[in-house]
Amino acid sequence: FIFNLVKQSRDAIISGDFESFRLDFINKYKGD
Question: How far, in Å, CA of 24 to CA of 1, rounded?
């Protein structure tokens, strides 16, 4: 799980879409 999260965040940073990744990450943890 952690590895996948790191890969996702790295891809998000590379694509310049880190902000939406961060919001999605926050929403996931609020939802659970």
Answer: 16
Q: Which helix (H) or strand (E) holds 14?
A: helix 2-14
Summarised one tens digit per residue, pLDDT across range 1-32 is 778 878 887 877 777 677 787 888 888 888 76
According to the model, what pLDDT value does residue 2 have?
79
User: Residue 16: which region, alpha, beta or left (left: phi > 0; alpha: psi -120 to 50)?
Assistant: left
Question: Cα(8)–Cα(12) distance, rounded to whole angstroms?
Answer: 6
CA pseudo-torsion sign 16, 8, 3, 23: positive
